[in-house]
Every structure is written in structure tokens, then in C-alpha cells.
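>> received
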Amino acid sequence: MAVHSGTEPRHRKVSEIIADLASQPKDRVSLADLMAVLEHRAFGVLMLILALPNAVGLGTIPGLSTVFGVPQVLISIQMILGAPRPWLPRWLAEKSIAMSDFRIMVTKAVPYLVKMERLLQPRLEATTSQAAERFLGVVFLTLAVIVSLPIPFANQPPAVAQVLIALGLIERDGVFVLLGLAASLVALSIAGVVGLGIIAGIYLAIVQLFGL
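>> returned
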């Protein structure tokens, strides 16, 4: 009978990984740096990292939306196609942001991540199966499109939904996945209402301007 020595490597939480990266003496952080520290982890970890800037309200920092938004679309498509692991082309992997901005994101995100990580546990694992990942890729893609659109006040809710789903995928916690799906519906509703409001405002402005 095998005897466990108690020296097996502990499963490192995402909060610990990004905190370690933020402590490094570097001027900038690239997506390649993130891929390196995440190694061959599942899609959930990378999608979580990519969603964090908007989830914590930092989408207004110049460059963050591009650096973290475009890869979301590519990774989502890979999930839908059933790719074995996430992959980014070199030109995209080399995109980077200032370490100071990354540290702001980590400082804001880690306290919330730590609290949620304490609640995570394997349950309702059918919602995190390989087949379910393909469906969740469609959800991620839809939310990524909303995040990338210039809709005021509509970027944070879909990013929060992405974080919840990603955490569920990482720890095989179907409850968090379901919470994320519910949050996705709320985010879609908010984006729809705000979008319709913008369209209505533009229409009224045109009517008043041209006297239609």
C-alpha cells in the first residue's frame, strides 16, 4: 500500500500565482509572462486572468482593454473547438502592460479571489465537463464581445460573470458556473438596456437636429 509522505506539491491558487508575478522586479507584464506562470493549466485560469481588469473596474486604463480583450475572443473560440490547451500567437503573446497597472489590478482582485477560493469545491461537475467547456466557450465569446464594445457601464458585469465561470472551471465547482451563467443573463440585460438607451438617444438627437 502506498504511503503518502505529505510532501506532495500543494495546488497553488490563482491568487497566489498572480501575486507572485506582481512582486517581480519588471517594468512590464506580457501575456507570454502570464502563459509561462500558468504553465499548462486549463482554459479557466487564463480566462480568469483576462477577465480580471474589467471585473475590478480597470478597463479605463489605456491599453488594458486591447491587451486583455482580444485574447478572450481567441481563447473562447479555442474552447468552442475543443482545443486541448490555450494557445496565443507570438504577436499577441508579446502584448504587454505596465507592471504598475498590473499591480493595481492584483491589489484590487486578490482580496476578492481569496474569499471566493475558500468557497470553491468540486460539485455538480457535469457543468465543468469537456463537453460543457464548449458551451461555456460560447458564453465566454458572447461576454467578450460585450466587454469589447464601447458601451458605458456595461463592461464590468460581463467580466464579473466570466470570473465566476472561470473559477468554477478551475476548481470543478458547478455552483460557481451556474452563478456565472446567471450573472451572464444579468450582464446581457444591462448591455441591452444601455445599448437601446444609446440608440434611442442618437435617434432623438437626429430628429431634433434635422427636424424630422
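>> The longest helix spans residues 174-210.
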